[in-house]
Amino acid sequence: MSTYDTVLSMARQGETVELRTMPATEAGVLKTLLAHPLVQPHILLRQGASSSHAYLDKLVARMLHAYDPCALHAGIYARGQEELIGTVSLQNWNRYENKGVLGYLLNPLWWGRGLATEAVGLLLDYSFQELGLLRAEGRCRGDNLRSERVMIKNGLTLERTLPMPGSPAVVMKVFTLLHK
């Protein structure tokens, strides 16, 4: 079995959440989650990204159908439940340098319960143990204290702060974790 096949069948279970491959039937739920007004400001960190239906459709397709060989996306589900409540991903995955960028989002109805922290921890464990990742990077807007706490609780440390493209008053914080 190739690494790619292993990634596609990734499933991990924690105390309160499970990470699973998302079926194509989750497209509507995922698009609604990505379009949520409380989630939008935190996922559109790239200059030029938009919340248009076409952009969200493309993003959903990439997440569900593994079109990007440099990314791994998994659904976050409350343990034992079938409802998709978020996603966790390894983006910009460089297999030669064994590094990648974390991505995660959670339905705001589930915020404040430690579920994103647990899901990110499961992905980090999988990435370091199974994929051979040596360096993980996480990014968040400077005002996203929830996301910052998720990374800190998973052992990432603040490496640098960068101005956001097109918004000099807003900064992006970059956190890193090196595999021991």
TrEMBL record:
Keyword hit for Transferase: yes
An example Gene Ontology CC term for this record: cytoplasm
InterPro entries: Acyl_CoA_acyltransferase, GNAT_dom, N-acetyltransferase
Keyword annotations: Acyltransferase, Transferase
Pfam families the UniProt entry points to: Acetyltransf_3
Keyword Protein transport: no
Domain N-acetyltransferase, residue spans: 17-177
Source organism superkingdom: Bacteria
GO molecular function (one): protein-N-terminal-alanine acetyltransferase activity
Family: Belongs to the acetyltransferase family. RimJ subfamily.
UniProt-recorded name of the protein: Ribosomal-protein-alanine N-acetyltransferase
Organism of provenance: Paenibacillus jilunlii
